DNA sequence: TGTTCTTAGTCCAAGTCCTC
DNA sequence: GAGGACTTGGACTAAGAACA
């Protein structure tokens, strides 16, 4: 980012920009909270991502561990391929539970069948045969159910994180980067914390005109970022938005914290509901009220409306909905 | 993890519709 | 069915950079 910024500056490209009041008063509570909370937020995020990554890996490991009940048969079956052992396991356990003699052969299905045929030879009465059938049939069913319940190897598609263009740092951040490099050139042993303190002192000592230079640099970097960001959005397909948002939702769940979704600027704007249309129309009446009070009052008014009074908003909504459907169709066709 | 300040994003509060 | 989008603006908070 700094290189990009440096390029913009050294190429002498200047964009006419609005002056910004840098001496705007800042809420002291914000400063106090920021001072205490900013350090380490980036590492924390990185740390989380690491945890997330390891968590996904861990999930794949326990699957083979969930087979303790068939240990003996597994050991006996040549463990060259897992697929074949699984198949054999199912059959050996199904028939091998009762016929413990099958253990001696330990070759799998064929050997167990042989055991079965040997057992059938000494049959004398029909009753005995029936009893045996009944006894044999019961465990078969149970084991079959177990086999069905066994975890199937689920493909775990890993959603790649989209590389989002990085936002430029604030004028202060740009100044600090420059200051840090200068300080490092003068004193290679200087620590970041020390350089930051010195930089902050120097920053506060800067005149308004000097700060304005940094502000202009920021505006230039920001302008470039906005162009890059727009190009980046234009290069994305709806599927990429879908995948990225899936990944972000997953991240939200893991993190237990809301992660904003990626919005497609090319996608058609969703229709406003009748209530939202009403809310927009009456907002001017509540300019003096607080946001929360305004919402409550608007909801109260909406609920007090008669069905015939709600009709105009509902009609507007239907029109907007038709617009949305038409635009959505066009949008889909564009990427079909 | 340490330091700094600014900017941009999120939250609140309501009800309804839409998407996943 | 859960949760996001939509509206509003003030209050609050996270992210942005440097790197050992």
Structure summary:
The chain is an all-alpha fold and 336 residues long. It has 15 helices and no strands. Helix 6 packs antiparallel against helix 8 and helix 13 packs across helix 15.
Please write out the topology.
Layout: H1 2-10, H2 28-37, H3 41-60, H4 62-65, H5 71-76, H6 82-96, H7 109-120, H8 126-149, H9 171-186, H10 192-205, H11 208-235, H12 238-255, H13 274-282, H14 291-304, H15 307-335
Helix pairs in contact: 1-11, 6-8, 9-10, 9-11, 13-14, 13-15
This protein binds a DNA duplex (20 and 20 nucleotides) through helix 2, helix 3, helix 9, helix 10 and helix 12.
Estimated share of beta-strand residues: under 5%
| DSSP summary, beta strand count | 0
CATH architecture of the largest domain: Orthogonal Bundle
Largest sheet: none
Give the uncertain stretches in residue-range form.
Answer: 1-146
Oligomeric description of these chains: single chain
SS-based structural class? mainly alpha
Mean of residue pLDDT values? 57
The total count of helices amounts to 15
Cα Rg: 35 Å
**CATH T-level topology of the largest domain:** DNA Binding (I), subunit A
Principal-axes geometry comes out as: extended
Strand and helix order = HHHHHHHHHHHHHHH
Helix content: 55-70%
CATH superfamily of the largest domain: High mobility group box domain
The CATH class label of the largest domain is Mainly Alpha
Our measurement of the CA-to-CA distance between the termini, rounded to an integer number of angstroms, reads: 35 Å
Total domain units: 3
């Amino acid at each position: 980012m700094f290189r990009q910024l440096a390029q913009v500056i050294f190429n002498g490209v200047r964009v006419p920009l609005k002056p910004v009041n840098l001496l705007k008063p800042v809420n002291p509570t914000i400063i106090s909270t920021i001072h205490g909370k900013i350090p380490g937020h980036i590492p924390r995020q990185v740390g989380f991502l690491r945890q997330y990554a390891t968590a996904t890996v861990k999930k794949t490991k326990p699957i083979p561990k969930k087979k303790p009940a068939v240990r003996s048969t597994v050991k006996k079956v040549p463990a060259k391929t897992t697929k074949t052992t699984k198949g054999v396991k199912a059959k050996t356990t199904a028939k091998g539970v009762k016929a413990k003699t099958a253990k001696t052969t330990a070759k799998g299905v064929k050997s167990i069948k042989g055991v079965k045929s040997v057992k059938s030879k000494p049959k004398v009465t029909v009753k005995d045969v029936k009893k045996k059938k009944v006894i044999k049939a019961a465990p078969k069913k149970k084991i079959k159910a177990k086999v069905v319940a066994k975890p199937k190897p689920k493909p775990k598609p890993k959603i790649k994180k989209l590389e989002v263009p990085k936002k430029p740092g604030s004028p202060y951040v740009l100044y600090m980067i420059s200051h840090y490099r200068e300080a490092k050139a003068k004193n290679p042993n200087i620590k970041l914390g020390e350089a930051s303190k010195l930089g902050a002192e120097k920053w506060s000592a800067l005149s308004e005109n000097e700060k304005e230079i940094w502000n202009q640099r920021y505006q230039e970097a920001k302008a470039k970022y906005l162009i890059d960001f727009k190009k980046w959005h234009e290069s994305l397909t709806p599927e990429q938005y879908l995948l990225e948002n899936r990944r972000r939702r997953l991240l939200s769940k893991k993190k237990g914290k809301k992660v904003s979704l990626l919005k497609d600027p090319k996608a058609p704007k969703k229709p406003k509901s009748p209530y939202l249309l009403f809310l927009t129309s009456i907002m001017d009446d509540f300019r003096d009220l607080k946001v929360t009070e305004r919402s409550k009052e608007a909801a109260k008014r909406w609920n007090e409306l008669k069905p015939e009074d709600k009709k105009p908003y509902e009609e507007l909504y239907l029109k907007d909905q038709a617009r949305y459907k038409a635009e959505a169709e066009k949008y889909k066709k564009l990427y079909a």
